[in-house]
């Protein structure tokens, strides 16, 4: 089955893009904002999980996407929101310490269950690549500015722990508001 192109209509009415393969949620064991180990699969078992690889020093896409997710979560019924977790995985672990992540996420998440994770870049990149998400090691440009490129997709894992939908950069808040209750109500996404 091919992935739907951006703008393709899905027969089930959902707005995200169907993954080519419903890959399982990665076995990421990183450090949470509290400085303690965080097992992604264990801590999000049975919940819709929106996984996003980004970095706090990102000038545009990461804060815009995180703000959109926070706004969408704020529009959901609290019972629906309780079945969803947003997980921001840093691709810049040298600068994104747990303290930096908690301060940054605090600007977006007024208690909706956002998690921030950091850990060894090689481990983060391996998990991202397994999900067809391209991330690069941060590098310092000739002007001394640290540059980084990353795929800005939000990956939605259903309550069954499998990749259900991919949301490209620029996804409308209304698309999340529509799709998340549907995913939260499904015992399994497939």
TrEMBL record:
PROSITE patterns: THIOREDOXIN_2
Domain Thioredoxin: 19-188
Domain of life, per lineage: Bacteria
Xref: InterPro entries: SCO1/SenC (IPR003782), Thioredoxin-like_sf (IPR036249), Thioredoxin_domain (IPR013766)
Chain spans, region Disordered: 1-25
Entry keyword set: Copper, Disulfide bond, Metal-binding
Disulphide bonds in the chain: 58-62
GO molecular function annotation: metal ion binding
Pfam families documented for this protein: SCO1-SenC
Residues that coordinate or bind Cu cation: 58, 62
Homology family: Belongs to the SCO1/2 family.
Protein name: Electron transporter SenC
Record organism: Pseudofrankia asymbiotica
């Amino acid at each position: 089955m091919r992935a739907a192109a951006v703008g393709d209509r899905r027969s089930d009415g959902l707005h995200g893009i169907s993954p080519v393969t419903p890959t399982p949620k990665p076995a990421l064991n990183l450090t949470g904002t509290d400085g303690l180990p965080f097992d992604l699969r264990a801590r999000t078992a049975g919940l819709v999980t929106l996984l996003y690889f980004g970095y706090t020093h990102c000038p545009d896409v990461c804060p815009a996407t995180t703000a959109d997710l926070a706004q969408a979560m704020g529009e959901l019924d609290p019972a629906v929101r309780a079945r969803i977790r947003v997980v921001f995985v840093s691709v810049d672990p040298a600068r994104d310490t747990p303290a930096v992540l908690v301060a940054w996420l605090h600007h977006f998440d007024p208690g909706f269950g956002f998690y921030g994770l950091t850990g060894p870049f090689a481990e983060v990149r391996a998990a991202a690549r397994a999900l067809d998400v391209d991330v690069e090691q941060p590098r310092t440009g000739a002007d001394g500015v640290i540059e980084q490129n990353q795929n800005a997709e939000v990956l939605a894992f259903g309550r069954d722990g499998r990749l259900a939908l991919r949301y490209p950069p620029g996804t409308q808040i209304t698309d999340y508001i529509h799709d998340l209750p549907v995913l939260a109500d499904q015992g399994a996404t497939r």
